[in-house]
Amino acid sequence: MNVLWIAVALLLAGFAGWPVTALVFRLARTIDDRADAAKAAEEAKRAAEDPSADVTVDLPSAAGAQNIDDELTAAADAPPSGSAGSAPPASTQRILRGGAIIGILERLGVCLAILTGQPVAIAYIVAIKGLGRFAELKETPVAAERFIIGTLTSMLWAAGTAAAVKVLFLA
User: Fold this and answer.
1) Beta carbons within 10 angstroms of residue 156's beta carbon
2) 133-171 per-position pLDDT tens digit
3) Backbone angles phi, psi at 25, to 5 degrees
4) Phi, psi of 93 (to 5 degrees)
């Protein structure tokens, strides 16, 4: 019977943890978006109250063209729209590739470490994960933030699942 509960704990910790992590990421993004909106509103209010900010500046249009004496001209660095040598759009690089698979393995490892009474193994899991991502985390602050949020969420989910199963069913 214990094998069944251990299997259930591993499945629950490993595979049901990703929706929890995704929910925490969404919550973090909502909080960041609200903070950014509040900051923008504060700056707009400050600019509206500042009498020295009563200066208007003509900005180039969104298409990269400028309007000079009612003549539409392309921006200096933009090729003409009909040219055959236009560059392809820049590709976007995914941040923290393979995170879903690594997260499942991390949660399985943490859960197994707690169920087997080897919590020191969690330190090895964190060390391996951190060393594997070190270069990417050093270059990109957004990646570092996602790494910390994802790792903490995954580990708390796996540890909570393992602890609950161990206390309720394996004691």
Assistant:
1) 15
2) 898 888 888 889 889 999 999 999 999 999 999 999 997
3) -60, -45
4) -95, 130
For 109, counting Cβ atoms within 10 Å of its Cβ (0-12 exposed, 13-18 middle, 19+ buried), the class is buried
Q: List the beta strands (DSSP E) in the chain.
A: 65-68, 71-74
HSE-up (13 A, CA, CB side) for residue 47:
10
How far apart, in Å, do the first and last CA atoms of the chain sit? 12
Report how far residue 79's alpha carbon sits from residue 125's, in angstroms, rounded to the nearest whole number: 50
Identify whether the C-beta of residue 18 lies closer than 8 Å to the C-beta of residue 106.
Answer: no
Q: Which two tokens stand for residue 171?
A: 């004691």
Please give the Cα distance from 141 to 150 (Å, whole number).
Answer: 14
153, two tokens: 């969420």
Which among 13, 19, 15, 16 has a CA at the least distance from the CA of 160?
13
pTM for the whole structure: 0.69
pLDDT digits (tens, 9 = 90+) for 82-100: 445 444 444 456 677 888 8
Joined tokens for residue 24? 């925490």
